[in-house]
Each structure stands twice: as C-alpha cells, then as structure tokens.
Specification:
The chain is mainly beta. The chain is about 10% helix and about 45% strand. The chain has one domain: Immunoglobulin-like.
Length: about 140
C-alpha cells in the first residue's frame, strides 16, 4: 500500500502541480454510507469562513467514491469548510456530509490536506445546506 504523501505527490503532478495559475486547490474524498444506492449526483461545496463566500461543484455519482480537487480563486485564503450533498435522480437532496477535518486552511497557490466527507441519509436540518443560495458561484474541479 502506498503512503498518503506519495499519493498526494502523484496527484499533484497529475493535476499539473499544486495550483492552476496561483489558485488554491482543496482535495476532497467523498464516500457514502452503505445503502444509499439512489444517489445519482453529488454537490460538493467549499465555504470561506471569514467572508462567507461559497463555491460548489456537481459530479455524477458512481456509487463508490468520488475524489476531486476544487480550485478556488487566487484571492481566497484562510479557513474553509467543506460539505457535500447526495442528490437523487430528481435533484432532491437525500444525503449530507461534513468534511473531516471540519476546517482546513488555504493559501493562494497551495493545496489543502485531503478532506474526507461521508454522505449519510437525511442528516436532519443540515440537509437545507444542499440548497445553495449562491450556487451561481461555480468552482472548477479535477478528478483524482
């Protein structure tokens, strides 16, 4: 089994380095609780805690694991949070997860440690976070 530093280094070399023209990169690994077989799409959102700015990306769900890197604008720095929502075929949120670690720090031109998100069915009132009010701010993502 390969070590995480090796895998992270390989990932960054495949993505063309840590950055895309000075942008920071948030590494996210999304999985789902067993039994959530109706997820068709996943929305991953990254939020800057200091400014409240949020970026989201959507990706089809294969039923296994989704690993991606989300590029943020060059002016984003500081602490961020990561959440993810599982959507059914009708676009309704049916699962929710919060990043682990809960927060990571980004700096222009750098990358974060990998953030792990496990989607769980329902998740109570947190499911409302899937209705992103500022969804017009779409991020760029690359799979890894």
């Amino acid at each position: 089994m390969r070590s995480r530093p090796f895998v992270a280094g390989l990932l960054l070399s495949l993505l063309g380095g840590c950055t895309e023209k000075g942008r920071s990169l948030v590494l996210v690994d999304v999985s789902a609780d067993p039994g959530l077989q109706t997820i068709r799409e996943v929305r991953v959102a990254v939020s800057a805690t200091a400014t409240g700015r949020r970026w989201s990306v959507m990706h089809a769900w294969s039923g296994d694991q989704l690993r991606l890197g989300i590029y943020l604008p060059t002016d984003v720095q500081g602490t961020i949070t990561t959440t993810a929502c599982g959507l059914d075929a009708g676009g309704q949120a049916i699962a929710f997860g919060v990043g682990d670690p809960t927060t990571v720090t980004v700096a222009p031109g750098g990358s974060t440690p990998e953030v792990f998100v496990t989607l769980s069915a329902g998740a109570g009132s947190q499911i409302e976070a899937c209705a992103i009010a500022d969804a017009s701010v779409a991020g760029d993502a690359a799979l890894f």
